[in-house]
Specification:
This protein is mostly helical. It folds into two domains: 139 residues, no CATH class; 27 residues. The two termini are 27 Å apart.
Length: 171
Amino acid sequence: MWPAIIMLAKMISAKRPGWAFWGGTFAIFGLFARTFHAGIDHLAFQLVREENVDLATKVIANSYGSFHIFKTFNLAIMLGWIVLAIGAYRAATLKIYQCVALALMASLPLGVLKGSTPFSFIATLGLCVALLPLGIKVLREDPKPSTIVIFGWIILSIALIGFFYFFGQAG
């Protein structure tokens, strides 16, 4: 998703560079933090699978309040979506409903082992409402890549996924 945020920030920066820079930077910090949290979630689930629920619960509970660098970005993570949405509105990059939908991402639960709630679904759906039309618009604009380039990227992507999967399983 980071390429979409960078593209949106680039589009906003034509008219509102400050809003684009800070909103894009904070939102991308948030994406990296969510990746970190997903890694801890993965560890917790693997502990259950490899050991047992009691051990996994104990390990995660004992380390839940531990410091990690992404805690320092918590406020920025939430504000990034709002700043990006305001910038998109002020630069007329997105329609008002898309800006509101983008700002909904600020309400997505943040942290390790946060369960899915109905509002999590709404916040994530808001991101889709905000960015999917923009993505389609960007893909339809010139210059368009040739069919050979598109198929080349598809083949290269499939080959890389296979390569990474193979070597990831070897370890």
